[in-house]
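Case study B.
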Amino acid sequence: MIATESLSKRFPRVTALDRLSVDVGPGVTGLVGANGAGKSTLIKILLGLSPATEGRAEVLGLDVATKGGAIRERVGYMPEHDCLPPDVSATEFVVHMARMSGLPPTAARERTADTLRHVGLYEERYRPIGGYSTGMKQRVKLAQALVHDPQLVLLDEPTNGLDPVGRDEMLGLIRRIHTDFGISVLVTSHLLGELERTCDHVVVIDGGKLLRSSSTTDFTQITTTLAIEVTDTDEHPDGTRAVREALHARGVSVEDGSGLPGAGHVLLLTAQGEETYDVVRDVIADLGLGLVRMEQRRHHISEVFTSTDEREQRKEAVGHGG
Amino acid sequence: MAVEHSTGTAAPAPGDQTRIHNIGYRKYDGPRLGRAYARRSLYSQSLRGSYGLGRSVKSKVLPMLLFVVMCVPAAIMVAVAVATKANALPVDYTRYAIIMQAVISLYVASQAPQSVSRDLRFKTVPLYFSRPIETADYVRAKFAALASALFILTAGPLLLLYVGALLAKLDFADQTKGFAQGLVSVALLSLLFAGIGLVIASFTPRRGFGIAAVIAVLTITYGAVSTLQAIADAQGSGDAVPWIGLFSPITIIDGVQSAFLGATSASPSGVGPSTAEGVVYVVVALGLIAASYGLLMRRYKKVGL
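Model:
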């Protein structure tokens, strides 16, 4: 979908992108970086709106330097900032934007109605945008990026300013753009944690340099962490401690689930294979405790980073992650 | 087989017709009409917007009102000409816009910011440039739309005068010639005023500032120029009058049309520029239009994304 080759962008005083080479395939790809890491600059170059200082980039197999117009016809873009006029309705606005993408008038109307429904705007679409909530505005912004049925959408911080529920809904919608609509997605965020749940692939950049590019499954399936929570009984007033000690005796190392909800009552252990589950079951049964929950926890991508050599550097890059 | 298939998938259960079905996402494989079509769409949307069409009722009031105000004097003149069986219209076609310049200025001041400041203020510009159109397409569409809107505003009453003159059975050849000269003059005026208005408006995202700035530029220059011309004329330095006229948009139009379009100058002396001076006027007028276009291009290169 996107391929860049030692792509650099230098401004008189800053280097926004520094020999960035990255390959993005179909699916949902997260582009992570702190503010000022070069995410927006990259998007501008990919849309063919800003020439690269050196290196080259291709979007959908088209060179950004020469085929900008053709790329923009097949790509949707949702900016980070507010971009909606308050005095027109979502329908009128999206119809206009569909025509600006080259859709004939009738098709523009049909696609607008369809797209607004898909992003979850119903009756309110006939009201002026000025009265919408932030969540609804984000949906309109998303709709205008999807209305011309692009092959790829570039979403710049789509969850910005949303409350946790709105965030989850937006992330679900982004997931559906790929699974249901068949459109590939490049989504930027400075929050690594939320991309982990949504993306197939994550690209991390910092200071215009590529830190890491790999699929989310690579990040998180190296090991499986189990979270266990047990009840207390008269015999074992602190059931959690009893389990920890018993597991320890059988050679399974256990960590406290500090930082998690219910910390102190949650034990984390690394499952080496099927046997670990059996060991846990037996230990708890022997102690006569009730098992409240035993669940697989995926690693947060940030945890993967912090376990690498360049711990400090990456921690900085994804400072807001997790 | 066929029956089974249809009941299995599509046929709704009885009494179920009112439910809204999620028909899933549909791909679009129809035509994509590209850049030129997008530019035309932006042009027509902006032109309609200049008269408040496709916008709220509130935004229709001012442009429509100004259009009516432009046309009313023409209608009265026609009525008088027809009723009194006059052998000429009370004003020349070329003079009409000069008389009504305050209304034209007001229209430019209200609609130029409407056309471009809104896109800047609400940061809609990046959405345009993330689509097939380029900077030049946006600038041309907006420029052409406002110029067309101004042409409708200024040529409308001329058409009224012309039709009225023919109804009053005035000389056909004379009237047609005058009408044509008037149209050329207001076409130039539309381009010039649209350019100046858009350049000023494109530098401020605040509509109020835009309106004030456009009115200020158009009226202050005219006030200053006509005052200086009057002083120059009164002090006997009439030679300077045409040169002073180059410093305000409306007197430039006046100069061009009195040199080449058979108009009598509206300047205090009533004497228009000579043919040689008229050439300078034309050059300045076209230069200003080109400069406005260039400035807009530069401005939008920066605004971009």
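Chain B touches chain A through 36 residues (CB under 8 Å). The remaining cases will be described in the next quarterly update.
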